[in-house]
DNA sequence: GCCTAAGCGAGACGGTACGTCTGGTCTTAAG
DNA sequence: CTTAAGACCAGACGTACCGTCTCGCTTAGGC
């Protein structure tokens, strides 16, 4: 994500593609700066000039692809909106390269505060913002929208990360319904 | 976790302590088999004889310490029980060595299915079981208790892992209340 | 040249051989720790455990081979002794792998005092010593033997290093004769 | 040494000065094209346009400074002439920046035939020529002057390069005397 | 009370990846 | 066309860990 006037776009692209392909082929563990460099036919120096290391490259490659999948919904109720986003979450990550990259990034972010910050800034927050705004509009003013978003999205991430129980539309719907209406009412 | 008649308990202890101390001092990244071996005054072979690697050692050290902190509550309602466990979660992990080790383990588990399975078996499930049983007793029969537990504990983990917003009693209470009664009622 | 009880002799040999073969094939410039490691099928760490770098490895390989070429002469006069050694010098280095390695080492030693010291200790001095002793015996007591050796061997090295004029038996003989009898007498 | 009509003299100067200053400050190893470029405030391309690399730049800087130290003597005998040149050699190189640069160049020339040729052409030969001519005049016609020069200057270079024994006027005189009169008479 | 199997400290070993460095080529924009 | 600036490929550098292995020492049990 650094800036420069002279950056060579082909090289930039080749590096991101190499990182993506490597992750797709062998998962997070298959990616290394050495491997990226070899596959992209690029000098090591070039990678370290523009990124801090493997995580930064993979993050950018991830953002690149993930941004191509915006949520589209015409729902007009808070529940409908949340349901649409929850289902989209499942579709986006479950059994996809994107999902594997994402969990890799989340794992690495545990030991890399800088990566965590970039993830928050360039992924979590941009995704939350429109949902937050939309929900705030249709929900009453005394609703804690951020808490609501946590309650919906945290379980989805939880299932994604633990990977031991299914994360499908059924589960997404159940989460949204329960959160909106209360479990023990 | 392995078995043997001949295992030397002092050595076993020394290794776990070394792993723990290293994590306490420098975080997950400061731990390596080489470092453990150096600090414990132990042969590398000995570590690999009884564990599969650094993650397994740290996991055992973690379980060792974490089990010393059981939840105690005399609550008799589902909401009270959940609140007690949610608050205990915050106390246990926030700004503690235990918390740092835990997030390290969760991060590593993203790339290590075996570690993930052990975590589930030896930590998540043993912790869930009594809560599940207790809640099932006081809640009605038509409540999806597992979903309920997800809804409560996932947000807590979420905050712990992202680390960007506070995870305190206030938040724990808010989560439990909202989940039980519904956010939009 | 370090010592250890546990050193694996096969590995030691393989590294020296690799260094030698690389120099023979492509000269001093073709040798690098990476190349040695690749050719010997050895870990990088193993090279750096026993040597300080490429120069140290090549030096040892050089000494290894060079020691197999002792000077043999039955000369009983100072002039005869010196002539034998001068001719041997030419035979040993001119158009031989040994010669190329030697000049490489001398070149590197200009920027590496440690290498220079090792060369002096393990090569120059052990070669000088017997000649010095032998010459001292047959020459009178008021002869500066070390100066004499300089006067004979320096020109030989000079031709070897500059490489612009031939270094053959004719030249070796001329040097010895001139030094012994005086040029302008 | 290259030629061009458009060459900018200030830039030329700045590069030579940078190379010289770097060598003076940190020795041969401290010089690199990158370092020269940084210190001279010059583009890398500019250096490679006019020189073949670091060695060529340093060589030119060396010649530039060294030529400012001509030998002056009114000696009329061969021995006197040689003695003057031998002493001048010691003064010029021992414990001087010039000496350090010179040994660096000689070291590099071992792996760089082009550099060796330039050294011979622009330094060794121009220095030898006048001495050769002068000596030839005063010495008889049957003296091998080139051999004589070798015998005198080689030991001086030898001491300079090995650096393990002193190279002073006493040594210079001893060499000249011995060579002229013969060591063993 | 041996004796043989194991656990054990020590650490060498083949590997892979790291992040830094230099060399030499090439591109861009200003003059 | 020269220059400053610097991106770029290439690849060596020396370090850190990993997980396997081999060495002797010591310490159990089984005899």
TrEMBL record, chains A, B, C, D:
It comes from the Bacteria. This is TetR/AcrR family transcriptional regulator. Residues 32-51 bind DNA. The keyword Transcription regulation applies. Keywords: DNA-binding, Transcription, Transcription regulation. The keyword Transcription regulation applies. It holds the Pfam family TetR_C_11. GO terms for molecular function: DNA-binding transcription factor activity; transcription cis-regulatory region binding. It comes from Amycolatopsis carbonis. Residues 9-69 form the HTH tetR-type domain.
